[in-house]
């Protein structure tokens, strides 16, 4: 979420606490993912369905077109062959002499498809353009409709299939023999995908050029069959099982990939939209669930010698892709929505997990302060949270301070009075944060048992430049002295400010001059480095 959007969400002047949605259980990731999948799947499924439909339709069209083209070309070949047979019908009643043989050879040579022309009479072949006089049984019954016969081979070429066209005339017949290589070329040119068969009677020839009486394989994806109107044969075309898948991979893969990418894109958008919080409260709750709120510690030092005596724990929001979000953009909203309670609890747990293992190395009675608001004062669980935090450290090793803020007015009640009494009973200290600028600071002093005041940094910044700020600081020091409570000056950044505050006798200081807020895991290394630096300074002075 861009910082400007965060600012708009959290600082909009028209957005009040009463307009926030009520708390509801958090959304689970699985339903969100399931809904996104349901949104993403229709597009690729639709693309797949359209692709399958188009593939089946195209395969069917190809089969029908292949059948039509094959019949057209085969009819041309057979019509030409019949013309060659008709041209020698006058020789049927004559003998197979040399002149007739030459005429048969010439007719066969001048026809582009005919391999040989043969003459038959009385049920026997007696003259061939290839072999001259012969005597073979014609087997008239094997011709379909007495006109066409598909053969796996003959006496001249037993391994080369052929198609014989028979033309009857003058008490005999003339036969034109077509080489299967022409037929195979026709079949292969007419088909792009699938299978194509020429069927004559019970025999069929496929794209491999072999003649067989085996049944034609099942063509389940596409099927087309048509008989010639001119000659007694049938052409069958189609696609076997798996052809649609192959067609999709070969021709429709880019389209399928595009629809899959589109579905993925839509699913991602849906996932992001479902995951997009509908309110600032939801944003904060999800950030809390994602452990995005981190504790940063800023040292508090003894004004006399500069030694670290503790730290104030500050909350920071580390938003992935955006870095650290300013506290003023989310803390007020967290307080109005009540989420500041679990956020503070999580902050305490994180600090305890980091510092408790190093309790022996912390300063004696180490001061650890957490900011609390009006919502905490109405929450009895604050007492348990403080007990759990103190229990994580050895007894007496730390002092837990709760710093009252004035972003939301704390209304004292019997419950809040009892809560602060119980906190005091377990050793928890109370400080008023940013003292001197809020309208309720004096009221808090009267109502609550306060152990310390934290002077707002605006007074410290005007030291030396504003006489009024100096008088106010003098007044605050006198007030703290009379009430017997500690003072902590915030926002110390210069040596001049340090000298002035030391002269006033303010015991504890905090500011960039001593250290900036740092991640909790960096506090102990920084503490060791500070101790070494202070020790070196003391040794040098001695």
Automatic annotation (TrEMBL):
Reactions catalysed: 3',3'-c-di-GMP + H2O = 5'-phosphoguanylyl(3'->5')guanosine + H(+)
InterPro entries, per database record: CSS-motif_dom, Cyclic-di-GMP_PDE-like, EAL_dom, EAL_sf
SUPFAM superfamilies hit by this protein: EAL domain-like (SSF141868)
EC number in record: 3.1.4.52
Transmembrane segments: 34-55, 255-274
Cell compartment(s), UniProt: Cell membrane
Membrane topology field: Multi-pass membrane protein
Origin superkingdom: Bacteria
EAL domain boundaries: 277-531
Keyword set, alphabetical order: c-di-GMP, Cell membrane, Hydrolase, Membrane, Transmembrane, Transmembrane helix
Top EC group: hydrolase
Name of a matching Pfam family: EAL
PANTHER family registered for this protein in UniProt: CYCLIC DI-GMP PHOSPHODIESTERASE PDEF, CYCLIC DI-GMP PHOSPHODIESTERASE PDEL
Protein's UniProt name: cyclic-guanylate-specific phosphodiesterase
Provenance organism: Jeongeupia naejangsanensis
């Amino acid at each position: 979420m861009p910082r400007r959007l965060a600012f708009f969400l959290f600082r909009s002047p028209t957005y009040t606490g009463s307009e926030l949605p009520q708390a509801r259980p958090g959304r689970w990731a699985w339903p969100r993912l399931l809904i996104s999948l349901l949104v993403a799947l229709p597009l690729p499924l639709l693309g797949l369905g359209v692709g399958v439909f188009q593939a089946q339709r195209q395969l069917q069209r190809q089969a029908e077109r292949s059948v039509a083209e094959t019949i057209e070309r085969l009819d041309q070949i057979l019509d030409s062959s019949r013309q060659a047979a008709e041209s020698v019908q006058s020789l049927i009643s004559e003998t197979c002499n040399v002149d007739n043989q030459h005429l048969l050879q010439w007719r066969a040579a001048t026809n582009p498809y005919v391999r040989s022309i043969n003459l038959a009479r009385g049920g026997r072949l007696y003259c061939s353009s290839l072999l001259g006089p012969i005597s073979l049984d014609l087997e008239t019954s094997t011709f379909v409709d007495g006109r066409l016969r598909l053969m796996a081979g003959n006496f001249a070429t037993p391994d080369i299939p052929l198609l014989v066209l028979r033309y009857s005339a003058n008490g005999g017949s003339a036969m034109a023999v077509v080489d299967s290589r022409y037929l195979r070329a026709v079949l292969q040119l007419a088909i792009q995908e699938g299978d194509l068969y020429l069927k004559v009677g019970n025999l069929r020839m496929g794209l491999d050029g072999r003649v067989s009486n085996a049944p034609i394989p099942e063509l389940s994806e596409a099927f087309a069959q048509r008989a010639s109107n001119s000659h007694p044969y049938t052409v069958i075309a189609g696609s076997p099982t798996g052809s649609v898948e192959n067609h999709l991979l070969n021709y429709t893969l880019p389209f399928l990939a595009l629809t899959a990418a589109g579905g993925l894109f839509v699913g991602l958008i849906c996932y992001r939209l479902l995951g997009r919080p509908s309110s600032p409260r939801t944003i904060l709750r999800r950030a809390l669930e994602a452990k995005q709120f981190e504790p940063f510690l800023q040292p508090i030092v003894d004004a006399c010698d500069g030694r670290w005596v503790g730290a104030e724990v500050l909350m920071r929001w580390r938003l992935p892709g955006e870095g650290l979000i300013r506290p003023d953009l989310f803390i007020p909203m967290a307080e109005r929505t009540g989420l500041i309670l679990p956020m503070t609890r999580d902050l305490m747990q994180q600090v305890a997990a980091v510092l408790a293992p190093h309790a022996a190395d912390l300063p004696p009675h180490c001061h650890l302060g957490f900011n609390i608001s009006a919502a905490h004062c109405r929450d009895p669980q604050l007492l348990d949270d403080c007990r759990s935090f103190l229990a994580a450290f050895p007894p007496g090793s730390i002092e837990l301070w709760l710093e009252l803020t004035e972003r939301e007015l704390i209304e004292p009640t019997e419950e809040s009075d009892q809560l602060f009494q119980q906190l005091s009973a377990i050793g928890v200290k109370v400080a008023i944060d940013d003292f001197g600028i809020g309208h309720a600071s004096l009221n808090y002093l009267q109502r609550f048992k306060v152990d310390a005041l934290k002077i707002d940094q605006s007074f410290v910044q005007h030291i030396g430049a504003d006489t009024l700020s100096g008088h106010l600081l003098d007044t605050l020091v006198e007030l703290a002295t009379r009430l017997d409570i500690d003072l902590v000056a915030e926002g110390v950044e210069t040596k001049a400010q340090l000298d002035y505050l030391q002269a006033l006798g303010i015991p504890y200081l905090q500011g960039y001059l001593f250290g900036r807020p740092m991640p909790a895991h960096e506090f102990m290394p920084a503490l060791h480095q500070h101790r070494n630096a202070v020790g070196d300074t003391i040794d040098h002075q001695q």
